């Protein structure tokens, strides 16, 4: 049993998620990058509002790690730009940590396993273990 998020944490996480998605989409559009889909799937804010874990879904998958690395290298600039955009909503912008959201891949793997002739429930070793972040 984990600690539930407070309403304040949820509001801040939602505000960061929406504003960060807008900002990243604008950057992608302004740089003229084509064939790239980036979405902010989840934001988790710590109870003291000092850290935010941001989960990104990037398509195409083959270049996803390169884009994630670029985003991680530009964390200070992203945080600064977000602080300017949200100056009327937040007094202090939390530190950002970016992660890849692999939940869609995990769901796809489970669906493929269920559609195969072998029963994955009889032999669960065929299913991949999910890493908790």
Write out key terms for the chains shown.
133 residues; alpha+beta; GMP Synthetase, Chain A, domain 3; 3-stranded mixed beta sheet; 4 helices; 18% strand
Describe this structure in words.
The chain has a single domain (7-101), classed as GMP Synthetase, Chain A, domain 3. 44% of the residues lie in helices and 18% in strands. The chain has helices at 7-31, 64-73, 75-85, 103-115, and strands at residues 37-45, 51-59, 95-100. It has a three-stranded mixed β-sheet, covered by helices on one side. The two termini are 16 Å apart. The mean pLDDT is 86.
CATH class: Alpha Beta
Coarse shape: globular
Radius of gyration: 18 Å
Strand content: 15-25%
Number of domains: 1
CATH architecture: 2-Layer Sandwich
Q: Summarize the biggest pleated sheet.
A: 3 strands, mixed
Low-pLDDT stretches: none
The succession of helices and strands, N to C, reads: HEEHHEH
CATH H-tier superfamily: K homology (KH) domain
Compute the number of strand runs: 3
Tell me roughly what share of residues is in helical segments.
40-55%
What's this entry about, in short?
It contains four helices and three strands. By secondary structure, it is α+β, with helices and mostly antiparallel strands.
């Amino acid at each position: 049993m984990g600690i539930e998020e407070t309403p304040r944490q949820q509001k801040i996480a939602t505000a960061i998620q929406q504003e960060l998605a807008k900002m990243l989409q604008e950057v992608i559009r302004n740089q003229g990058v084509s064939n790239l889909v980036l979405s902010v799937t989840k934001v988790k804010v710590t109870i003291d509002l000092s850290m935010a874990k941001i989960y990104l879904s990037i398509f195409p998958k083959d270049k996803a790690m390169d884009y994630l690395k670029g985003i991680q290298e530009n964390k200070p600039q992203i945080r600064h730009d977000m602080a300017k955009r949200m100056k009327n909503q937040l007094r202090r912008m939390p530190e950002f940590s970016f992660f890849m959201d692999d939940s869609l891949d995990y769901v796809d793997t489970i669906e493929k396993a269920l559609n195969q002739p072998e029963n994955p429930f009889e032999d669960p070793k065929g299913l991949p273990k999910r890493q908790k972040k």
